[in-house]
Amino acid sequence: MSAVDDPGAELTAAEPRPPYPKGRVLEQGDWSLLDAVRGRPRLWRDVDGWGA
Amino acid sequence: MPADANPDTARPTDEIVDVLVIGAGASGAALAWSLAETRMRILCLEQGDWIKPTEFPTNGRDWEARCYAEFDISPNRRARDTDYPINDDNSIMKIANFNGVGGGTILYTAHYPRMHPSDFRVRTLDGVADDWPIDYWTLEPYFAENDRMTGVAGLAGDPAYPPHQPNMPPVPLGRTGARYARAVNALSKILTVGPHMAESGTGATVCGGM
Fold it and tell me: So what's the pLDDT on residue B186?
């Protein structure tokens, strides 16, 4: 018995097959969405004075 | 098992070795590899089996069900012949492992975060546990080498971690990741894209937090 929800897969336009070995092709997406993150001050503690 | 062992024929041996490594997981296998160039005789023992990629549950359409059976992260539910029960009732951190060549990397989600410099100074900074006798920057070249050998993917410029350049390009955001990112930005939260093993990642790990 398959545990795959075929109607659900159809809704996401995903081919009803296992993830491997063929994998899935993903859109790159808009990496500029992370610009706000890159502009933030660092979040880690520079305890040794090496990371300035 | 010897580094050049044939998984189908390798068996324990009475040969005298120079180095004995217990466990062929992420740490033991990396240690054995790092010592190989010394030409010492190295024996790496592993109680579990070699797991063939074709046996992974994600090759089948019932992969989600199998992740709660013979590929469960808990040895108590997995109950393979190579497992032993672990009582983690009194621990807030529950056991997640795998007994086999590759150890926990057989099952993990390929999320590959680095430690922070402050992780080595928890007694001084936070009054808990003990400081390490070594610091992050001494280990940093080895983190980088481990990332390179493992094929870690990611983006440079994550303010959550000390500066470093991932060796592999990031796993794409995909439609799900992009939509999530827009939602997080709209809420003025922090979005991060976690480091991933490129070979295993099925999508970027996007995490929103305060």
Answer: 84
